[in-house]
Backbone:
């Protein structure tokens, strides 16, 4: 399995994203000349598209459909979940249970999941911070809620998210379904139970 590494910025809690079978490493520009850099980037960018197209064409219709399926898995990975992954030819899995055993425990779980998918599953979870943190324990930083994150400096937040992204990658979780981008008006914050009252939003100013 090959990987793509993507910087997701200071508002995302994961800095690494893995995609099975389709990857390319951008060449470092050897000159300061702008045209040379652009040409190199364009040539490199065309490579993963061709690789992905070839891999998709080699799949059966069921396998192609399975790439659109994300199976929910609890911390136990029971028989029904195992069957759902293999029978659907799922392309991705989301860890829905509360995994509080730290990085090592989650790494064992994701390794078991990957065996079911031939090592090519994209494994995700919800790790927003605050009340919504599926992964806890040794090796995982305790991330504050989005409302509290908004009060941190860029440098402080970047440091926390970089640490979290690395620990999640070590645990085999390479996609974070966060953050919540909803902007709740100040006049409605008290009544907005799903986002504002739980501290899942960054504030009331979309700018």
Residues:
């Amino acid at each position: 399995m090959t990987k793509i590494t993507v910087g997701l910025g200071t508002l995302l809690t994961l800095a690494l994203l893995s995609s099975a079978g389709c990857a390319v490493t951008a060449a470092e520009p050897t000159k300061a000349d702008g045209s040379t850099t652009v040409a190199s980037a364009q040539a490199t960018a065309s490579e993963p598209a061709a690789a992905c197209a070839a891999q998709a064409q080699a799949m059966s219709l069921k396998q192609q459909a399975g790439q659109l399926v994300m199976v929910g898995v609890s911390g136990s990975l029971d028989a029904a979940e195992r069957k759902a992954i293999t029978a659907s030819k799922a392309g991705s899995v989301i860890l829905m249970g509360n995994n509080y055993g730290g990085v090592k425990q989650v790494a064992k779980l994701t390794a078991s999941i990957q065996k079911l998918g031939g090592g090519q599953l994209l494994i995700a979870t919800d790790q927003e911070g605050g009340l919504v943190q599926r992964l806890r324990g040794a090796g995982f930083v305790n991330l504050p809620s989005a409302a509290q994150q908004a009060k941190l400096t860029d440098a402080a937040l970047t440091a926390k998210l970089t640490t979290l992204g690395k620990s999640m990658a070590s645990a085999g979780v390479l996609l974070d379904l966060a953050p919540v981008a909803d902007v709740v008006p100040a006049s409605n914050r008290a009544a907005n139970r799903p986002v504002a009252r739980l501290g899942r939003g960054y504030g009331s100013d979309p700018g």
Summary: The first strand starts at residue 70 and ends at 73.
